[in-house]
Prior knowledge:
By secondary structure, this protein is an alpha+beta fold. Helix content is 50%, strand content 8%. Among the domains are: 1-119, Beta Polymerase, domain 2 (2-Layer Sandwich), CATH 3.30.460; 251-358, no CATH class; 380-433. The strands form three sheets. The protein has a seven-stranded mixed sheet. It has a two-stranded antiparallel sheet with strand order 6-7. Adenosine-5'-triphosphate binds next to helix 5.
Amino acid sequence: MTDPAQNLETYLVGGAVRDQIMGFEVKDRDWVVVGATAKKMLKLGFKQVGKNFPVFLHPSTGEEYALARAERKTAKGYHGFEFDSHCQITLQQDLQRRDLTINAMAMDRQGNLIDPFGGQRDIKEKIIRHVSDAFKEDPVRVLRVARFAARYAGKGYRVAADTQAMMVDMVDNGEVDALVAERVWQEMHASLQEKHCAVFFRELRNCGALEKILPEIDALFGVPQTEKYHPEIDTGIHILMSLDAADRLTDNPINLFAVLVHDLGKALTPVSELPSHRGHEKRGLKPIKQLCERLNVPSQYRSFALKVCEFHLHCHRIGQLKATTVMRLLEKFDGFRKPELIDGFALCCLADKQGRSGHEQENHDQMNLLLEYHRAALAVDGGKVANQVRQQANAGNNTDAKITGAKIKAAIRKQRIAAIAKVIANGKLQTALRPRLS
Ligand code: ATP
Ligand code: MG
């Protein structure tokens, strides 16, 4: 079959061109079609994606082909867009409506670069820069700038001063208030998986958007902590440093989200108690719930984050806990059915520990001890314990399955506690265990 795209004037655009020029692996390829109509696309066998959106899927590659379009702003927020997409729209017009110069380049079928807004120059100079004044018409772009800054921070990229100024304007004139929860979570979630996710939050704070979008996190900046434990003092800085530490340990967004919100309670500490934050673990639950509700954060993220918040001090005190307390902790995280949650918890606590000035290389001892307790408890052979209890029940002529079931449960629990107690009695790590982290 011949390629139906051959009958069209098509250009590779957006992320694919950017990634190719930056020397990164190209993930998905998006195309722009100039001089065509929806009718023509359908006739060539392309499938229209949305009813009113001029985007089509290639019948065999499944790649996206969008008719060249220009945007006109009609109202506040991004519902207020109208698209002009007809066969007279030029490639240049289509590129002009894009957010950033690095995202506004195109490549023709022969591999020639079309770069009317200096994308290549900005890649060379490592600058994230808006394409035109139209940037300020879509608040999602504020989030996108912060996300790309998080992605490329390690490469030395920074946001252009005039782009930054425009973002400040968009916050000041209320444009950012029009962001809907879904898009905030979507961009935030993607950013948590970028290389330096702390930069996403730092950029949002720099332009004032953090206060509007994530006030619970913004409120941590300026809140002091005890210098002895937190030489960085500022709680907001501590959170950014903890995210940096977490980024070195994992790219699992569930863990990163938990690290982000684990200290929200510190913004609610009564002033008279500062810089101490006694009770912040419990106090943090409400703002986490509030944030999750507002942004429709998936329940998996929410429930794990709540537990990390409530119990993170347990991990820091792990060496002083009694076996029964350790057991309750493991149960709270459902650590016998979902062992990976204990790994995640240990990791979040380590990130919290390493997220402090001068403590970036802090050892893994507490984390390893928690994992060793967990391993010991997991090693209890539940089947064997169950058989013993059943045999005893039979010998005693007790045939009530419910009672036996409860006895089995209690016996397994007891043995798990005994296994943890044995590790405690041993007094130290039996082996130099490496963390079970992915
Ligand atoms: P990623 O690597 O994260 O996919 P991307 O640049 O490909 O990055 P997409 O969301 O896939 O991002 O968008 C494809 C292209 O569409 C972008 O490169 C950009 O040119 C344009 N674009 C996307 N969202 C916007 C927006 N809100 N405003 C302007 N242009 C946008
Ligand atoms: Mg893309």
